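R.M. (postdoc): so does anyone remember the format we settled on? I'll just put the structure tokens first.
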């Protein structure tokens, strides 16, 4: 079962960013599939995938934030705050004291919605700014 389907409209034209986005989508879908099929043998795998999502998201954010610094992106502070909000949400999911209040559907829906809205909004705006800079080295998408 897919909760976050990748669409070409999410492509930024930056090969590494697009590959990272696709991987994050894949992780959310895998977590959703495991959670939808109930607890059991996949429970440890679910936590492993959520931890992998958190790690991959932080690596992805570090790349974007470095690019924003390199190109003096004017909305860097706002963009970084949206990154921090997702980090906080994932930390809440991974915290045994707060995770018990979350349904499996809520976890994956929050992650999927956040990614779609963030990519279509913040990331697309960021990439358009980079592309307008004379020094930006475009990297064609792998899609």
């Amino acid at each position: 079962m897919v909760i976050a389907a990748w669409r070409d409209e999410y492509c930024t034209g930056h090969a590494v960013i697009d590959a990272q986005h696709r991987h994050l989508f894949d992780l959310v879908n895998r977590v959703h599939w495991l959670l939808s099929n109930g607890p059991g043998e996949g429970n440890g795998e679910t936590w492993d995938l959520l931890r992998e999502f958190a790690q991959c998201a932080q690596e992805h954010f570090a790349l974007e934030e470095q690019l924003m610094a390199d190109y003096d992106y004017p909305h860097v502070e706002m963009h970084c705050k949206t990154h921090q909000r997702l980090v906080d949400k994932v930390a809440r999911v991974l915290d045994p004291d707060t995770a018990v209040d979350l349904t499996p559907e809520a976890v994956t829906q929050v992650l999927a919605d956040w990614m779609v809205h963030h990519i279509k909004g913040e990331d697309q705006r960021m990439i358009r700014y980079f592309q307008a800079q004379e020094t930006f080295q475009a990297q064609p998408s792998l899609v």
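R.M.: ...and that's the designed sequence above, right after the tokens. Also worth knowing: The longest helix spans residues 104-132. The two ends are 22 Å apart (CA to CA).
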